[in-house]
Amino acid sequence: MSDRLQTNIRQLADMHWNDNGELEVLTFDLHGETFAIEAIMVQEILDLLPETAVPGAMAFVGSVINFRGKVIPLADIRLAFGMEAGASTIDSRIVVIEIELQGELTLVGIRTDKVNEVTTLSRDMSEPPPSVGMKWRPDYINCLVKRGGQFIILPNLEAIFSFRKEA
After folding, report:
1. 33-81 pLDDT, tens digit each
2. Is 140 domain-assigned?
3. 13 three-state secondary structure
4. SS3 9
């Protein structure tokens, strides 16, 4: 079994699928693509807030926001996926998540173009990212889930936020 396949199997196992093989997620749009994160991670969905730029920070986490009196990083994961940063619109939101990074629970804001819904996805409809033809780093994707006529991308946020050096 290839290292890449073993990694994808481990990533799927780390997700919180219930006994029926279902996963509750929040779906959102980034640059015309639909992404989803586990609903259990979501702390709050916010309208856009004032940002403070952090000089010398990585481009995809180049600013911070005040969330309930705490300073938290604001990530634009479009940049981690090689997409262009988009202009804010009336639908733009910040999704505040709690994620374990290097053994610590950390709050991070994720900028989205639009938040869609909380829904349930089926593990039976999930697949690892293909090894050929992907425009994104495969280690940044936990899986793709087929739903209707589209694919929903479940990003590997731990890989994106851990030891990210390049912008």
Report:
1. 999 999 999 999 999 999 999 999 888 999 999 999 999 999 999 999 9
2. yes
3. helix
4. helix
